[in-house]
Amino acid sequence: MFLCRPGRPLASQGHTTAGHADLRQARDDVRRTRRPARGARAGSLDVALFRTRSFANGNITALTVSLGESGLILSLPLRFQNVRGMDALDAGLALLPLAISSFLASGGVHSLSQRMSPVQIVRLGLGLEIAALASLALLIRPGSSTWVTGVPLFVYGMGVGFATAQLTQLILADIPVEKSGQASSTQSTAWQVGSALGIAILGTALFTTLRASTESRLSDQIAADPGIGGLVDAVSHSAGALIAPLSQDPATAFVADAARQALTQGVSVAAWVGVVALVVGFLTTRRLGGTPASATPAPDERADDPVGDEQRTN
Fold it and tell me: Which region, left, alpha or beta, applies to residue 239 given φ > 0 means left and ψ of -120 to 50 means alpha?
């Protein structure tokens, strides 16, 4: 760095010229990085992809399906641990039927696809998920055994295996190969957004019900002793983790009992919200393509078909 004082010449004309050249080069580099390539879009996502009906509607389906699935994974472990008194390992084992049936269903999709189109398999999976969540919402009680949750979870996992395995194929079926990478990342984003929305929406339904239902069950006690209202707030803020400590104290056991019932009711409400989301996802499949891939002749077969060539010529 050379300083130029008033009344004095520059220290080195050669260094100054080199410095100006470096500045021009840096300026040109910045301009090139900001200017998009000729013919390229400024954005990273080609929104023209959503003009493809199967792609647009398939992403809506994926979002709603993911919304319903993720909320279930949030609410049930809380119920297993805070209502049933399970530890983290036992709560994970209670969810095992979902994973096992999903694995089995994914493996059985190949044989099922010989008799059904991909969109029919997706609808079958969503139908199983809706039936499983609805039965869970109807049957679950504070004292329900793991069988009451295990059977619906097994059926739900079958639905997840059927629907998820074919939905990605349907979303990308009509997308050109050169845009398949961008389309694939977009549908992955739709799944992630659905998961985030599911945790937010179904979690809100769960915790809102937990607090409101506990307060409703203890309204007389709260009116007599406002301190009980503080316990209700603490249970809500802990997502039900304080139920076990409160149940060990005879003076607060009634608060724990009310919170157990409220948390179970919250799981039921969250399950019904998931059912609504899955029904919306099921309805969006009406606009997905229903023609099996095997029904479209291969390019080589069309090229070797003299009748087809004559018809196209005429």
Answer: left
Radius of gyration of the chain (CA): 30
Separation of alpha carbons 65 and 57, rounded Å: 12
| Beta-carbon count within 10 A of 151 CB | 15
Please report which helix (H) or strand (E) contains residue 173, including its range. Answer: none
pLDDT, residue 22, reads: 54
Taken as a whole, the chain contains a residue count of 314
pLDDT in tens, 277-305: 899 888 888 777 544 433 334 444 444 44
User: Cβ(44)–Cβ(54) under 8 Å?
Assistant: no
Question: What is the torsion angle, in degrees rounded to the nearest 10, for the CA atoms of residue 293, residue 299, residue 300 and residue 306?
Answer: 110
Token reading at 58:
């398939």
**First-last CA distance in the chain:** 79
Distance between CA atoms of 118 and 106, rounded to whole angstroms?
Answer: 13
Q: What span, in angstroms and rounded, lies between the C-alpha atoms of 182 and 295?
A: 27
